[in-house]
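Hi Prof. W.,

I finally got the Polysaccharide biosynthesis C-terminal domain-containing protein prediction working! I wasn't sure whether to trim anything, so I left the full sequence exactly as given:
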Amino acid sequence: MADVDSLSIGRQAFGATIAKATLHIGSLIGSIIFARILGAKTFGGMALLFVLLQFANQPMKGGAVAGKKRLSEETERTGELIAIQLLFNLIWILGLSVVLFAFEDVIKQYTGLQHTVAFILLLLITEANFETLLPLIQARGGINVSHWLETLRSYIRLPIQIGLIVMGFGVAGIVYGIVIASALMIPIGLYILYRLPKAPTTDLIKRYWKYARYSIPQRWIGSLAGRTDIFLLGVLLTPTVVGYYEVAWKITLPGMYLARTIGEGLMTKISARSAKGLNISEDITNSVSYVGILSIPILFGVLALDTELVITVFGPEYIGATPLLVGLAAHRVLRSLTSPLIQIIQGLDRPDQTMKIIVAVLIVNTITGIWLISWLGAIGAVLSTIVAELVRYAWSVRFLQQKVSQFRIVSRPFAEQTVAAVLMYIMISVLKWVLKPESWEVVGGLVAIGVITYTVVLVLFGRNHRVIVQNLLKNYRISW
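And this is what came out:
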């Protein structure tokens, strides 16, 4: 177990990002297969199913955030916090099942899928319970381990899902694959925590709830705010349009890998250091400088190859995703900047402040989303999401500037990443004009050239990036 107040954010983020990238490769392969077999309408209905699941499981994840916070302060009470979390999960699932069955027909009509409620409950019992163990593992310094567990689960579920879909199970095969893989991973998660559930003290339950009363509604409202776009598209437009939107969302998803893993490490480390009255400003500045290292080049990459990427990866049926791609990539850049800031605020024991931010984002996203989607269609959902993210970013920065000395929002590494991405865009655009790519081999070659160009420019001309690469190559090892 790592000493969390001296946790190496860089090393943990590097290992976790490799895990995320490995996971995304499997998930992207699955998404491509599912999208091509199911078609845009059913693929969109499946996306709506998982949006509803995301809304349903957020209170459980919000409770896990509280468990992570308390466990980072008192790692010897792991067994008690596992018991508190599992008990809360059970109570939530039992209560929610009554509501879901009461509105079963409405939910079925919304997704266009049979057995939607049964699917949601199966996923809550297995997947959501497994995912609530991961923040507890992170609280003990296991950032790498938690992400590799997710990756392992992904590669267990994928062949099961493909096999079931080939056998004709459709969306049910996708759900059953997740259920089986998650059920297998729960004992492994408990083994890594190296504790069995233990009867908690009343005092610990009260301290858990003191944080959870904010983190639970914050996670739920945050999820609603984060996927208001998909939810409103399902209400105002059609599952087919949702399918287009989900394809663009999947292509730009890697932009968030490093930002999320850095944020998870920061929350743990800042929580431990601030509880001991230690300095945190240097950790924040060093970490936040590198959150855009993936999202920025992805934005410029899709600017150069938007249509080619959609058609090559998902097929011509999803050409409707092309106009959404650049906007969602721009949103990823903003979100990569904001995500660690929210984690920092949580680590400072201010869930009340993050709650205010999330409520503001939800209100802005809902109002602008309804108006812009009614006016512009799916592109309106992209624009409303960007506007809402700007609100989240501005509020987070303003709060941290007041609370953390020497907090900076612009840094030399961020500027270097932007310059390298622009040069990459120029290189790809010139080659695209010369080669006129129509095959997946040429498109893949252009993507590879873009990655190499961005990496070489960043390492050669970015002194800080060069030092980080040298240190990682010299010192990195998986350790938690």
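Residues 4-475 form one domain. Does that look reasonable to you?

Thanks,
D.
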